[in-house]
Amino acid sequence: MELKLRFSDRKRGLSSVIATISLVLITLVALAIVAGVVIPLIKNNLSKTDCINYRDYFSFSDEFGYGCYAYSNSGELLNVFSIKANNIEPVLEENLEGFRLALIYQDSGESKTLDVNQKKQAVLSAEGIRMLNSSEIYLDVPKSGELRTYVYNSLTRNINRIEIYPKLKSGNVCEINDQITLEGSICDQTKIVEYN
């Protein structure tokens, strides 16, 4: 008995092979698209998990009466604020590089960011940041349970609000911890020593 394949049978067999190959290709393309979107999304979220331990780590403090502004002898605007670091485990503190400040200007609403790291050089004159009543050329970042007071010379521009974000040695900048409004709070000028 001899079997002869008809043309329509061969066409049907070829169609099922093409359909199978097409399904495999479509599946591979769909996987590539999903991998291109999902993997970076997961990777970004996993890299932010190290920030969980630093929620509410830094806060602005008015314990010593700062969170205000004053004018220098030369008419420059000095913004004075204290930052407190809440208690944290020493191993977590080792992963902290410092903090990022977002300075929001009152007149335009524009903002400027400023990174403060341990032993970053202070700016004692012109626009910049320094420690309060210190001629030290380096800044200190408060450690667990400590409080540090800073002076930011914004020259003549009013800063309305300052926000603080922990910055880790991994390069991640975590979510906002706290903010302070300086508008309308004038410092006791006698508490601020000027350095030129």
Describe the structure in your own words.
This protein has 196 residues and is of the alpha+beta class. The chain has 2 domains: 7-49; 55-191, Immunoglobulin-like, CATH 2.60.40. Helix content is 23%, strand content 30%. It is built from 2 helices and 9 strands, in the order H-E-E-E-H-E-E-E-E-E-E. The protein has helices at 7-47, 90-93, and strands at 58-61, 68-71, 77-85, 96-105, 111-117, 128-131, 147-153, 159-168, 178-181. Strand 4 and strand 5 (111-117) form a beta hairpin. The radius of gyration is 29 Å and the shape is elongated. The N and C termini lie far apart (109 Å). The relative contact order is 0.19.
Topology (SSEs and partners):
Layout: H1 7-47, E1 58-61, E2 68-71, E3 77-85, H2 90-93, E4 96-105, E5 111-117, E6 128-131, E7 147-153, E8 159-168, E9 178-181
Antiparallel strand pairs: 1-3, 2-3, 3-7, 4-5, 4-8, 6-7, 8-9
Figure out the total of helices.
2
Instruction: Give the biggest beta sheet.
Output: 5 strands, antiparallel
CATH fold descriptor of the largest domain = Immunoglobulin-like
Which H/E pattern describes the elements? HEEEHEEEEEE
Radius of gyration: 29 Å
